[in-house]
Amino acid sequence: MTQCNQRAFGFHRTGRRQVVAKFDGGPISSDGGALLLGQVERGTGILAQFARCFTDHRDPELIEHPVAQLVGQRVYGLALGYEDLNDHDALRHDPLLAALVGCADPRGGKRRRKADRGKALAGKSTLNRLELTPVGAGAASRYKKITFSVRRFERLLVDLFIQAHPTPPAQIVLDIDATDDPIHGDQLGKFFHGYYDCYCYLPLYVTCGEHVLCARLRPSNIDASAGSLSVLRRIVEQIREHWPDVRIIVRGDSGFCRENLMRWCEGNGVDYLFGLAKNARLLRAIGRPMHEAKQLCEQTGQAARVFTDLDYRTRKSWSRSRRIVAKAEHLPGTRGENPRFVVSSISAEELGAQTLYEDHYCPRGDMENRIKEQQLHLFADRTSAATMRANQLRLAFSTIAYTLLSALRRLGLAGTSMARAQCGTIRTRLLKIGARVRVTARKVWVSLSQSFPLQDLFAAAYHRLTLTPAYPLGP
Question: Is the pTM of this model over 0.90?
Answer without folding.
Answer: yes
